[in-house]
Amino acid sequence: MRLQHSKKAQTLIIMLLLTSLCITAMGYAVYRIATDTLVQEVQSAYHVSLQRTQDRVQNYFKQIDQSVLQFEKLPALESLIMPGEEENNLEILKLLETMLRMQTSMDDVDNIALYRISNKKLYSTNHQVTAFQEDYREAIAKFEQTDKNYSFFNLTVKETPTTVYIRKLPIFQGSRTLYIIIHLNQQFFDHILGSSNETKGNYFILDENNQLLQNRGVMDTTRLMAYVVPEILHERRPSSDKLFTAYLPPSYNGWIFGFATPNEELFTKINSIRNVTFILAAVLLILAVLVTIFSTNRLWRGWKDIVSLLDEPSTGSGAVSSTKKTAHRADEFQHIYGKMQRIKETRDELKEQVKELTPEIREAFIRNMLQKGLRSQEDVDKCERYQIELLSGGYSCFCVEIDQYKSMSGIYSEIDLYYFLYGLSLVIQEVIAGKGKGVVTGHGEGRFLALLSLDDAEASLDTYKDSIHEAARTIRDFIEQYFPFTVSIGISLLRKDYAYLSLSSQEAEDALKHKLVTGTNEIIPIEEFRREESDSGASALPVSFRELENDVIYAVRSLNPELAYRYIDRLGELQGLRTISYQWLQSQLTEMVFSIHRTIGSTLRKPPTEPLMGELMQLATLEEWIAWLKANTVDKLYADLQQEHLEHMLKVAQQLTAYIHEHNEEDLRPEGCCKALNVPTSIGKQALKEVHDTTFSDFLLHSRIEKAKSWLVHSEMSIEDISSRLHYSNAQNFSRTFKKAVGMPPGQYRKDAREHLKT
Predict the structure, then answer these.
(1) Is the same domain home to 401 and 520?
(2) Residue 347 exposed, middle or buried by CB count within 10 Å (0-12, 13-18, 19+)
(3) Are residues 513 and 585 both part of a single domain?
């Protein structure tokens, strides 16, 4: 028999061959092999189910951690973080309001409390604070003994199961003076594991101390601890053949997710068909031997071709595939061979494209970093990912520009100019590496932006400046000596906070604007052109207007008006300084206002109306300026950005929900859906949360449940077919999920819905 047309014929031959091999082992061996195979398949299925359960738990606690991080940024929390600071009742109320919003935004949370270590006082969203403080005393004492940053406890307080999650605050500081306590109700584990009357077998969780954290099922805790848990901890098969177990290795917080069920529930059907199998075995053996004789050679020759394809390099394989496909077009294995060859070639091409794009992505990140600064932990993580090392002593930006670059285009070819620019970038990078750490990137025709950071071992500010100026002189002198052109170099002020990288790079560019005065082939520090500010007393000011402008722009773009208010309030530190000229101060504030409006307005589809100069001239005191900036700059720009943000979130949510409804029969992931819509994954998740107050997995579950309802009412599909099409591991998991969402099993829903339609 030749395997040329039907895949069903191939499957039949393999089944017959496997049956013949089983028969040679005789009787009981057939049963044992079949049983082991079933155990492996069931284990694989339950591993998938447990993995989903584990992912839900991890995602849940990630959601909690993200909410805690946002909570930690509240200005009202600062007074509680500092030991010895007096408590402000208004700020406490703000904290409690935020904690209550956090509680309502998270499922299965009964209470959120904030515990201050210094005075051992508890602030809770529940009004019975004193009673709850007594309830949490045991959990707090146990947490302090662990010496961990966060822990999860499942205790019994006053004969009531109590589940709490405790984390130290602030998260990213060495001294932590607060605990945040999140009290979960018992429905949390019901939603994760299912209720006891819904499961066949037992779903359970072991905590980091290998104790039984939760158990759902018919078997009691004593039996699990006696037979199942010891075998899991020693990673060997259960000593009792009456039990089947499946579990995942320790994951979040050292937890182990597992499942156990009696073997008789798994092997009922196989025991009933075992005797029938023995009767048919002899007939199948004879048929398998005859078919195998004719098919084995053809079968293994095809697999040998596929293996050789995967083992050999992909170069030049296209011509070989084309020749073989023409000669054996009717051969099914040859068809598979051609497909796998194309897949392998595509994979190799993608790998090469990724290698080529990585330097470009890194270059784009460097440019973005120099234009926007490093403010978030995500930006710092990207620096580590792209192997960009920055030192903490201090930094300054260079802007290196080739003098008379445009006139060089008439003298040299494009290739010569390319090598000149490439050589200049290498010189800048080598000088930076000799002084400290940093990066360099192209910034227009004949111009480069560079960042040089120095180690904190340097002695003083003057030493930092000398090192930076020496690096600039080295670049200039080397280029003048070995290249057919000269360069001018603008140098920014020295700073330590990388949040102001954008300000430093702008200062380096602004310094080059003074080439008309200083001439070419010069080093131009921006500080030399700030004498007017120094004469007005600006050098002694506690507030830098450029940095303040940068901070306000960042806060407004981050949709955080409270943070912008705090930055603007720093203007109050200028009160009482008699060395300031009012005309100079008014000019600085006016320039800052227009710069903020133009910078943020450039990112809006509809630019905002700029303030009138006459309106600004009427402001006579710092209090009036501060109030005007908050009301007419921060609030208006925030409202415009917020409106565009809401419109964008609504549009993304509509696209994403429509895509989910259309493709809910596929194995959907947030990354894949957002990629298909050309939307960042984080934006897609945020849109679902803000518009529909749900997560991707919950919305996908809702969409699939609605489709399952339609199939149950309007089709004759079996529950097994529905569960398979909706990507459930088995019908049992689908039925459990459907009942939890709808309130009744799918079979009962089909019956009730059809009876309702008849009436």
Answers:
(1) yes
(2) exposed
(3) no
